[in-house]
Amino acid sequence: MNNRRTLVIRYDEIGLKGKNRRFFIDRLRQNIRFRLKGLDGVSINVPHGRILLECDEDQADELVRRLGFVPGIASLSVGVMMEPELELIAQKGIEWISPLLDSNPALKFCVRTKRSHKGFALTSSEVDHAVGGQIMQALSERGLCVNIGRPDFKLEIEIGMNHTVVFKDRVPGLRGLPVGSAGKVLGLLSGGIDSPVAMYRLLRRGCRVHGVFFDNKPYMGQGGYNKVLRLCGVLNRYQESMRLRVVPFEDIQVAIRDHCRPANRVVLYRRMMYRIAQAIADAEGYKALVTGESLGQVASQTLENLDAVSRVVDCSVFRPLIGMDKNEIITESKTIGTYDISIEAQPDCCSVFMPDRPATKAKIHELENDETRYPWQDLMQEALGKMEVLDPEPLDI
Ligand code: ATP
Ligand code: MG
Question: Residue 329 is part of which domain span?
Answer without folding.
Answer: 184-390
